[in-house]
Design brief:
Keywords: Aminoacyl-tRNA synthetase, ATP-binding, Cytoplasm, Ligase, Nucleotide-binding, Protein biosynthesis
Function: Catalyzes the attachment of glutamate to tRNA(Glu) in a two-step reaction: glutamate is first activated by ATP to form Glu-AMP and then transferred to the acceptor end of tRNA(Glu).
Number of domains: 2
Shape: elongated
Number of strands: 13
Number of helices: 19
Largest sheet: 3 strands, mixed
Protein name: Glutamate--tRNA ligase
CATH superfamily of the largest domain: HUPs
GO biological process, one term: glutamyl-tRNA aminoacylation
Pfam family, one: tRNA-synt_1c
């Protein structure tokens, strides 16, 4: 008869956990898992907890722990209790293994590494599943040599099936005979991941385990521990499982670095993404609410639930992230953006002029980097270094026209967009030129490039004195630039 876990929420307080291994950066899939757990807890008025699974001491680093915590903080994911470090709890894990052993839900396995390798070789030769053959499950310990090392293995039920009512995947059933008697304690007495996770989830009061669907098989291996401890102690309820499909690249292939599988901090530092944009984008990777794309943090807490999570893999698309980031840049506070740009360009004392420039810089930018590039003209020193294209615009004829324009602009008493535009257009008409023929050389003289915010915005932002100085530095003293 199939045994089951109940999906959904109950009267008991919802408790979720995010449990990264600090063997590398917080990648995009891990960040989404963290987000879904956090949102589910917040939506149901529950608790969101954090556990650092640092039992792999050879590969776990303090640098990785710091990066994970920094990335979560940057995304605005706060936790209701201090992080639990799994490595601090080895004694508790071993205690549970001992209880399972005493209650005959586990046993000592004295198989040597050589014997196990021979077993696997025979299974490979016979094209059998690679699975421990339970050779010590029912043997007397006295048959082992005195003082021989042993592992502790779980006695997994061999009959029947287990069905999980997964909150995302639906009903999933596995025959119990397909699960081997895996190790709980290694020969050196250290707990395995499979044991540690179950004990920690129980002790932290976790009610809902939301994680990638690559862990779905683990659920069927972890449930026997939970149910054995329920029989021994009581108060070991099955959690609700929700296994979320993984993230693929835009081409449908497994996510890799070429698709953007980089640390969360790299989206901030290298891609120039705002945290609210990545938050929103991760939310929409595999979860939806109608056709809505732009969802605020407050709305996400209100709307998020597991019934909105899809069953198929989500596709990561960096262009969609950049487009969403452009939206949030346009919505962001000018002073905040000014501080970000000032930090990037090494001008921490220039936030006031940058804040003033943001209304004309924001509509053109998809990233903070593009904001910084757009603002670069404000801090250039004379003589401006011209790009090749900009230099190509400043032939003798153009330089003559700039000289004539400088005369007219220097007489301008109202240094506003409207007044400057009127004066420039009037001069262009006098020369019988389209405005572009005058504006492009003017842009080159003012910014050193061929792209910038609107040319009259540039004049206003630079101010009269600096604008005229830049124009005069490129203008020809020869005259008006009129042609015969």
């Amino acid at each position: 008869m199939a045994s089951e876990t109940a999906a959904g929420t109950s009267a008991k307080q919802v408790v979720t956990r995010f449990a990264p291994s600090p063997t590398g950066f917080l990648h995009i899939g891990g960040a989404r898992t963290a987000l879904f757990n956090w949102l589910f807890a917040r939506h149901h008025g529950g608790k969101a907890l954090l556990r650092i699974e640092d039992t792999d001491k050879k590969r776990s680093t303090q640098e990785a722990i710091d990066k994970i915590l920094e990335g979560l903080d940057w995304l605005g994911l706060d936790y209701d209790e201090p992080p639990v470090f799994q490595s601090d709890r080895a004694e508790r894990h071993a205690d549970v293994a001992q209880k399972l052993l005493e209650a005959d839900h586990a046993y000592k396995c004295f198989a040597t590494p050589e014997e196990l390798e021979q077993m696997r070789a025979e299974q490979r030769a016979n094209k059998q599943p690679m699975r421990y053959d339970r050779r010590w499950r029912d043997r007397d310990e006295a048959e082992a040599p005195a003082g021989a090392p042993y592992t502790v293995r779980l006695k997994v039920p061999t009959e029947g099936a287990t069905t999980i009512k997964d909150a995302v995947q639906g009903d999933v059933t596995v025959q119990n005979a397909e699960i081997d008697d895996y190790i709980l304690l290694r020969a050196d007495g250290t707990p395995t991941y499979m044991l540690a996770v179950v004990v920690d989830d129980h002790d932290m009061g976790v009610t809902h385990i939301i994680r990638g669907d690559d862990h779905l098989n683990n659920a069927f291996r972890q449930l026997p521990i939970i149910r054995a401890m329920e029989e021994i102690e009581g108060n070991w309820p099955d959690p609700v499982y929700a296994h979320v499909p993984l993230i693929h690249g835009s081409d449908g292939a497994k996510m890799s670095k070429r698709h953007g599988a980089i640390g969360v901090e790299a989206y901030r530092d290298e891609e120039g993404v705002l945290p609210e944009a990545l938050f929103n984008y991760l939310l929409r990777l595999g979860w939806g609410h109608g056709d809505r794309e732009e969802i605020t943090r407050e709305e996400a807490i209100q709307l998020f639930d597991l019934d909105g999570v899809g069953k198929s893999a989500a596709r990561f698309d960096i262009k969609k992230l950049q487009n969403l980031n452009a939206h949030y840049i346009r919505e962001a506070d000018d002073q905040r953006l000014a501080e970000l740009v000032a930090q990037e360009i090494g001008k921490p004392g220039e936030t006031s002029v940058l804040a003033e420039a943001m209304p004309v810089l924001k509509p053109r930018a998809k990233t903070v980097h593009e904001l910084a590039e757009g603002a670069a003209f404000l801090f250039k020193t004379r003589p401006l270094e011209l790009t090749e294209k900009a230099a190509g615009l400043l032939d003798d004829e153009a330089r003559g026209r700039l000289a004539g324009l400088s005369e007219r602009l220097s007489a301008e008493n109202s240094w506003t967009i409207e007044a400057l535009e009127a004066t420039t257009k009037s001069y262009a008409e006098e020369l019988e030129l389209g405005l572009g023929k005058l504006a492009q050389p003017l842009r080159a003289a003012l910014t050193g490039t061929t792209t910038s915010p609107g040319i009259f915005d540039v004049l206003v932002l630079l101010g009269k004195e600096e604008s005229l100085a830049r124009i005069d530095a490129q203008a020809s003293p020869a005259g008006t630039g009129k042609t015969d």
